[in-house]
Design goal:
Order of helices and strands: HHEHHEEEEEEEEEEHEEEEEEEEE
Largest sheet: 7 strands, mixed
Distance between the termini: 36 Å
Number of strands: 20
Number of helices: 5
Strand content: 15-25%
């Protein structure tokens, strides 16, 4: 269900991110309220994000080396993603709605075909790994047909703690928090929160075992 008031904490955090398309509907969007996804500010930023991502996905110079492509891709990622830690690496192609609402920690790695529908805030900790085809879907709609006809939608934040491994073709749905140290098995659909230091598999994903907690490196 959509929120009925703005989330001032989320709005304050968004002020630390890059390329934010500030407008009334942006603040509603990240707050989980119903909003119009076709206001000019949001449409323009989605186009800009796709332009940046298309350049990233196509970029592979003939004289590239491991060092040069890593450095150049990192610089491009920092123009796409709202907040980026040290040593990020995303295998192209990947896709975003806005990019600006994504925060990733240090040593983030995503394999091919990662998709981020980052209409709400997407927060990812340190040393997180994605298998191929992971989908982070913060966007959603009402079941009311008329609101969908009218282009009205809403979104819920997604958070993934540090030291998580998200297997290939996992789908993470709006509003989900995955605690630190988790493994999500390939092909799972995560519909509810997963507690820290858990292994979860299936559709919907369910915890099947716990792993021994270790201290955070930070």
């Amino acid at each position: 269900m959509a929120s009925t008031e703005k989330n001032e904490k989320f709005i304050a955090y968004a002020k630390t991110l890059k390329n934010i398309p500030w407008c009334e509907d942006y603040e509603k969007m990240i707050s989980g309220m119903l909003y119009d996804s076709f206001v000019p500010e949001l449409v323009t930023e989605r186009i800009r994000a796709r332009q940046r991502v298309t350049k990233y996905n196509a970029y592979f110079p003939d004289d590239a080396t491991a060092e040069s492509i890593t450095s150049e891709r990192e610089a491009m990622l920092r123009s796409i993603i709202g907040k980026v830690g040290k040593r990020p690496y995303i295998e192209p192609p990947f896709y975003v709605d806005y990019g600006c609402n994504i925060s990733v920690g240090d040593d983030f790695y995503a394999n091919f075909n990662a998709t981020f529908l980052d209409c709400s805030l997407v927060t990812i900790g340190d040393r997180v790994m994605f298998g191929p085809g992971v989908s982070i879907l913060s966007a959603t709609h009402e079941t009311s047909i008329q609101s969908r006809r009218d282009g009205i939608e809403y979104a819920k934040p997604i958070a993934i703690g540090s030291d998580c491994w998200i297997g290939g073709n996992v789908t993470i749905l709006p509003g989900v928090t995955i605690g630190e140290g988790c493994t999500i098995g390939a092909g799972s659909v995560v519909t509810k929160d997963i507690p820290p230091f858990s292994v979860a598999i299936g559709s919907p994903a369910r915890v099947v075992k716990k792993v021994e907690p270790i201290a955070d490196l930070n």
